[in-house]
Amino acid sequence: MIAGVKMKELTKEIKRYILDQGLDLVGVASTDRIGAITPEGYHRPADLLPECRSSIVMALRWVDPLVDGLPELRGMYSRMMIMMNGRLDQTLLRIARFLGQKGFLAMPVHASDPYDLSSLKGVLSHKHAAVQAGLGEFGVSNLLLTPQFGPRQRFVQLLTDAELKPDEPLNLGLCKKTVSECDYACIRACPPKVIPPPPKGPEALKRMIWDGIKIDKPGCSYYQDRGLPHMGRNGYTYRCGMCITACPVGSKILKRETVARGIRPARMIP
């Protein structure tokens, strides 16, 4: 009982510290649970940190007007993505030091940038970890949807040997509940058409919530790297984001009258 109380108190303290750093969401998953559902081709937490007992998954939400402004504000959106990744990584280092000062091992796993360029996979799957940490569910676009922000956040995670209280995965059917409203808007909005038709049947939809679906990652990457302009002198290419802006999920996203009426920002990209 005492050990359980200490685990709960430590988890609460760490989560409070993380949210105080300006991040928007945090959840905890046990290493065993993540390892059991990690897709083929991805590393497991124990591959990176054999002592790992918990994965702390964190998210920073997008600024809604930039997402709502796609595709016209794609240059600004793409630049913001770079800034968000940097903010997440810097915050991750502070959290790792916080845990280190408490005597725990802590390994930060950075945002974005594929580890394996041939298969476009990260070191770990942040999205699958987020599912197990109770932060969200997969949608038909293979984006990770949270109840608060839908697909409008970016994730990182931190591996630690601290035994923390894991959160329970969600089972809300976020994507399924909005299909009647959006009619698979993400599939229709995708310029290179890399999202497959939605799975059919209740069991297939249930698996999708937990496991995600297989989109044409090379096609998505090729469109963004070759089909979109480069961003100024730094050489970065614009990012697409149309599946994100098309998705209606997210209870804390402001519903703007101008967006609903189809009033668009000034066109700023070719």
Question: What features would you describe in this structure?
Answer:
By secondary structure, the chain is of the alpha+beta class. It has one domain (2-253). Helix content is 42%, strand content 13%. It has 12 helices and 8 strands. It has helices at 2-20, 31-37, 45-48, 64-68, 74-101, 126-132, 174-182, 185-189, 202-211, 217-227, 242-246, 257-260, and strands spanning 25-30, 54-61, 106-109, 137-138, 144-145, 153-160, 230-231, 236-237. The strands form 3 sheets. It has a 4-stranded antiparallel β-sheet with strand order 1-2-6-3, with helices on both faces. Strands 4-5 form a two-stranded antiparallel sheet. It has a two-stranded antiparallel ribbon with strand order 7-8. The N and C termini lie far apart (62 Å). The model has no long low-confidence stretch (mean pLDDT 91).
List keywords for this structure.
270 residues; alpha+beta; 4-stranded antiparallel beta sheet; 12 helices; 8 strands
How would you concisely characterize the structure shown here?
With 270 residues, the chain is of the alpha+beta class. The chain is 42% helix and 13% strand. It has one domain.
The low-confidence parts are none
Structure class: alpha+beta
**What integer is the average pLDDT?**
91
Largest sheet: 4 strands, antiparallel
Distance between the termini: 62 Å
Number of helical elements? 12
Outline the secondary-structure elements.
Elements: H1 2-20, E1 25-30, H2 31-37, H3 45-48, E2 54-61, H4 64-68, H5 74-101, E3 106-109, H6 126-132, E4 137-138, E5 144-145, E6 153-160, H7 174-182, H8 185-189, H9 202-211, H10 217-227, E7 230-231, E8 236-237, H11 242-246, H12 257-260
Antiparallel strand pairs: 1-2, 2-6, 3-6, 4-5, 7-8
